[in-house]
Design brief:
By secondary structure, the protein is α+β, with helices and mostly antiparallel strands. 26% of the residues lie in helices and 22% in strands. The chain folds into two domains: 287 residues, FAD/NAD(P)-binding domain (3-Layer(bba) Sandwich); 151 residues, Cholesterol Oxidase, domain 2 (2-Layer Sandwich). The strands form six sheets. Strands 1, 2, 3, 4, 10, 11, 12, 13 and 22 form a nine-stranded mixed β-sheet that branches. A five-stranded antiparallel β-sheet has the order 16-17-14-20-21. α1 packs parallel to α6, α4 packs across α11 and α5 crosses α9. The radius of gyration is 23 Å and the shape is globular. The relative contact order is 0.19.
């Protein structure tokens, strides 16, 4: 074994006999859910091993070399997409820290109306606002959820706020897990200043303090089962020079690879509950990007997102600025050739933002013959109407802020030169097939439910019909929440880990 920066981060040797480990709990994944669960279980006095498929990349490694960074820390180099009426690209972190390394750092609690639904319709009394309150507080304290330092927001956020203020639209100020973020806007490729408080800086040190460890480059392929009970995992050491197997035996297994990878692993191992819900109820918070050209520089630097416009949340529409780094800014336009080149020359004058729709459709994660995964989601016509309306709202905001032109996600109506074009865009009713979408919020494929006939997980996070197997990531979420899910994932993971810790300790005492 070799260690990476700390003895608690272990890079296994790539050659040799099968690596065999034993522990109380093995956690698969080191992102928002996995790191939270691992730290919580270790603090309960259990021996915990966390397995991560990717490598460990400390702050000193993050750079402006975009191709190099996305190859290091994103699954498939960021080239992942959901199939459907219109493909939806998405990002998954594949490194120690998981997607907390590459997200924008927004910290929102689950809305109480959503929690009420989970309690009343999903029979999950433990997920009420009152009972989750201590978990939310602990999560926010641990990850340093706070507002940006004054002056660090940047002009991209300022233009968004100016337009909303002039229209009298309600704004909500974002809290982000950061300490003195300077607005370098490198969130997607890893924070180069160490300001973003990913699990590398927060939950994982708590795991290490109690003797837990993260083993990197470990791809879990097999969920070990004996006598109807899950007793560990096995797999391969990857991305290193060599080929070696590993086996981890444990009293319990916690899956936390995310809403895509967790159900794929379960299905490849033939784990499907009586309800048939593994891989179903896939929600993604689809969003679209927009941009606006101003007479003065607006995209020099600043926080990724300091505000959200919640004026139309009752319509299921959330709008926000989202500063796109120059290396990615070409995706904000439906132009090609000379026109795209001109847009890029104007990049300092272009503000970027987006619209998130609280979807009520759902997709599915499947495993086809020969183990081939299929991730599918279809944007509905009803949600498309909300995207068109949201684009009209955001264009209005940008024109009110002083924009000369606004760029849309619609292939056949890519540019608005004046507020009059907003009406024409709405009348054109762009189709789903002619719209560019994106998402960073994948949820709900192994949903928790108090009724085994309707869900995949029990209220304490254990897979129905599979003793010893737990899920503590976005896959466990009962449904869509309409806000950035990082804090929700961590709160659920802590709830699940505390119950698991109590169960294992009581068994040991008996």
């Amino acid at each position: 074994m070799t260690a990476a920066a700390t003895p608690n981060i272990v890079v296994p040797e790539s050659r040799g006999a099968t690596l065999r480990l034993d522990c109380d709990v093995v956690v698969v994944g080191s992102g928002a859910g996995g790191a939270t669960a691992a730290a919580t279980l270790a603090e309960a006095g259990l021996d915990v091993i966390c397995l991560e498929e990717g490598g460990y990349h400390p702050t000193a490694e993050y750079s402006a070399d975009i191709p190099q960074m996305i190859a290091k820390i994103l699954r498939n180099g960021g080239a992942t997409a959901i199939m459907g009426r219109s493909p939806v690209p998405y990002l998954e972190g594949r490194c120690v820290g998981g997607s907390t390394v590459v997200n924008g750092g927004m910290c929102w609690r689950t809305p109480e109306r959503v929690l009420d639904t989970w309690v009343n319709e999903y029979r999950l009394e433990a997920l009420s606002a009152r009972r989750l309150e201590p978990h939310f507080e602990e999560v926010e304290r641990t990850i340093n959820a706070r507002y940006q330092d004054p002056g660090s927001e940047g002009p991209n956020n300022d233009m968004f706020k100016r337009g909303a203020d002039r229209l009298g639209w309600k704004l909500s100020k974002n809290r982000r897990n950061q300490i003195h973020c300077v607005g370098s806007n490198d969130c997607v490729t890893g924070c180069p200043t160490g300001a973003k408080q990913s699990t590398i800086s927060t939950w994982l040190p708590r795991l290490y303090a109690r003797g837990g460890a993260v083993y990197t480059h470990c791809r879990v392929e097999k969920i070990l089962q004996e006598g109807g009970r899950v007793v560990g995992v096995a797999g391969r050491i990857v991305d290193l020079d060599g080929e070696r197997r590993f086996v981890v035996r444990s009293r319990a297994v916690v899956l936390a690879g995310g809403a895509v990878q967790t159900p794929i692993l379960m299905l490849r191992n033939g784990i499907q509950v009586k309800s048939g819900q593994v891989g179903r109820n896939f929600t993604i918070h689809p969003n679209v990007k927009m941009a606006a050209l101003f007479d003065h520089p607006v995209a020099v630097r600043g926080a990724h997102q300091a505000w959200q416009c919640i004026e139309f949340e009752h319509e299921g529409i959330l709008m926000a600025p989202g500063l796109i780094p120059l290396a990615f800014q070409s995706v904000a336009f439906n132009d090609f050739g000379p026109r795209l080149a001109q847009r890029m020359r104007d990049h300092e004058h272009i503000a970027t933002g987006g619209i998130l729709v609280d979807d009520h459709a759902s997709g599915r994660v499947q495993v086809l013959p020969f183990g081939i995964p299929l991730v599918r989601y279809d944007v509905t016509d009803e949600d498309q109407r909300r995207f068109i309306q949201g684009a009209a709202y955001l264009a209005t905001l940008y024109f009110e802020a002083g924009a000369r032109e606004v760029y849309t996600p619609f292939h056949h109506f890519p540019r608005l030169r004046s507020p009059d074009d907003i009406r024409r865009m709405k009348a054109a009713a762009p189709r789903v097939q002619d719209t560019e979408y994106f998402t960073a919020h994948l949820m709900g494929t192994v949903r928790m439910h108090g009724d085994a006939r309707q869900g995949a997980l029990s209220p304490d996070g254990q897979v129905w019909d599979r003793p010893g197997l737990y899920v503590a990531d976005a896959a466990a979420m009962p449904g869509t929440i309409g806000v950035n899910p990082q804090v929700t994932i961590m709160a659920l993971a802590r709830h699940i880990a505390l119950h698991l810790g109590d169960r294992l300790k009581s068994r040991a005492a008996a």
